[in-house]
Specification:
Layout: H1 25-29, H2 34-58, H3 63-72, H4 74-87, H5 91-95, H6 107-137, H7 143-160, H8 163-188, H9 197-203, H10 213-222, H11 227-240, H12 242-246, H13 253-295, H14 304-308, H15 310-316, H16 320-353, H17 362-387, H18 390-418, H19 428-453
Helix pairs in contact: 2-8, 2-10, 2-11, 2-13, 2-16, 2-18, 3-10, 3-13, 4-11, 4-13, 4-18, 6-7, 6-16, 6-17, 6-18, 7-17, 8-13, 8-15, 8-16, 10-18, 11-16, 11-18, 13-15, 16-17, 18-19
């Protein structure tokens, strides 16, 4: 007779789950994973759409911002991961500790909830982008119908998938297309009509274009680690096992040693993912700035995918147009796939914080996750029915996410001083970098608000 076995709860810290951290570089490399999923979430909307559009609109002038956006936010990502390893808390549980107004949960949790609701506009844009690609392959099927087919297929896969499946699918989807994009960017170097080193130098001169700041703020929210990815990362760290392997906090020397060891693995994971999406982001931007800007075309509306394909056919030849279609589906779908998987976990966590159910009941938590997968794909599909403008939808969501960045930054600063175990506190230069990054994000977002309010 078979008995029903309750699924293992990756969010529960138990002494029997303790595992010593790897010490060699090869062993550490085998334990990365959360950053790969994060990179797959980042590359789709931020790089393929927002970054290339910014390049098409402003040429090489904002190359510096793209690089800065990819690099500076990883300190917040790393410190949120450190906090999760030290406490076993999810990001929403951590944000619920931030002082201020409360309505069942902290105001930061509610700010996250509002940003998620608005950020689903971008998911609708990506679903529309995927449907546009598939429509070129099977033009007899309307784009709107394809959006719903993709929606239903994703619901089925994510309803049965676990962390390992999400990690493997994300890695496969992003890897091939990113390599092709970097290759196209290298070919661009031999195309003087689209590329010059003088333009690159000018793009690194830290100059803000007069009419491009608001677009730049949107890209700051979407390129590199955005606000959504910062909130998501601790969940993948928990499901990978970094906190479980450290064990329940008891502040013994053994616990501190394990925690610092897994934080070292976390740091490698953070840097590894940053290298991947930074190379991809720069490649996408150079293609947009060189080819699309050089041709005087900007991706718009239902022609978005056809316009973007010029980045490949102009450098690699007409044959690459078909490869681009396959790659575009992979990279956009990887973002929808991994992002929906993460947001469903966060919403189930949010319900637990609101005391709607006992989060200790992992089976019930999984059922809520599956329910939210449906919701998180249904709502964006309806958004696309209304707007049917993928580029605009992604940029709208980018502006919303950008506004959340300083809130998450300074919440992380608060957690570092008030709730992080002192035995695993970061070095002084990391704390300084956390302050500087949070302040920089606040200045940029504040300035963008003033520009919007100016007559």
């Amino acid at each position: 007779m078979t008995t029903h076995q309750e699924p293992c709860n990756p969010y529960e810290l138990r002494a029997e789950s303790v595992e010593e951290p790897p010490l060699t570089l090869s062993a550490i490399t085998l334990r990365v994973g959360p950053g790969i999923i994060l990179a797959s979430t980042i590359v789709g909307s931020g790089e393929l759409i927002a970054t290339t559009v910014l390049g098409a609109e402003h040429g090489y002038s904002l190359l510096w911002l793209i690089i800065v956006s990819c690099i500076i936010k990883i300190v917040v990502q790393n410190e949120l991961g450190r906090y999760t390893i030290g406490t076993g808390e999810t990001s929403l549980e951590a944000f619920d500790r931030v002082p201020g107004p409360r309505l069942g949960a902290s105001w930061v949790v509610w700010a996250w909830f509002l940003s998620l609701a608005l950020a689903l506009v971008a998911v609708g844009g990506m679903l529309g982008g995927i449907a546009q690609v598939v429509h070129q392959i099977v033009p007899s099927v309307p784009i709107v119908a394809l959006v719903w087919v993709i929606n239903i297929g994703t619901v089925i896969v994510l309803s049965i998938g676990r962390y390992e499946l999400i990690e493997r699918v994300s890695m496969a989807m992003v890897g091939g297309f990113t390599l092709m994009t970097v290759g196209a960017a290298f070919v661009l170097l031999d195309s003087p009509q689209y590329f010059s080193w003088d333009a690159i130098v000018e793009g690194l001169s830290f100059r803000m274009p007069e009419d491009g700041f608001l677009s730049a703020v949107a890209v700051m929210g979407l390129t590199g680690v955005g606000a959504a990815e910062l909130g998501i990362y601790p969940y993948w760290c928990l499901e990978k096992g970094y906190a479980r392997f450290t064990g329940p906090r008891d502040d013994t020397p053994a616990w501190t040693r394990r925690a610092r060891g897994w934080i070292r693995v976390l740091g490698f994971d953070v840097v590894n993912s940053m290298v991947i999406y930074t190379f991809a982001t720069i490649a996408f931007y150079l293609l947009g700035a060189g080819i699309l800007n050089g041709m005087g075309i900007v991706p718009r509306g239902t022609e978005m995918i056809e316009t973007l394909s010029n980045m490949y056919t102009a450098t690699l030849g007409e044959w690459s147009g078909y490869v681009f279609l396959i790659g575009a589906v992979a990279v956009l779908y990887s973002t929808v796939f991994a992002g929906t998987a993460a947001r469903s976990r966060m919403l189930a966590d949010w319900l637990g914080i609101m005391k709607a159910y006992d989060k200790g009941n992992y089976g019930l938590r999984l059922r809520f996750q599956r329910l939210f997968v449906v919701v998180l794909l249904m709502v964006p599909s309806l958004y696309y029915m209304f707007f049917q403008e993928p580029v605009m939808m992604v940029k709208m969501a980018g502006a919303v996410e950008a506004m959340m960045l300083p809130i998450i930054g300074f919440s992380t600063v608060y957690l570092r001083y008030r709730h992080l175990p002192s035995s695993i506190a970061p070095k002084g230069w990391i704390t300084l970098a956390l302050w500087v990054t949070s302040a920089l994000m606040a200045v940029m977002m504040g300035y963008s608000v003033l520009l919007r309010l100016a007559p």
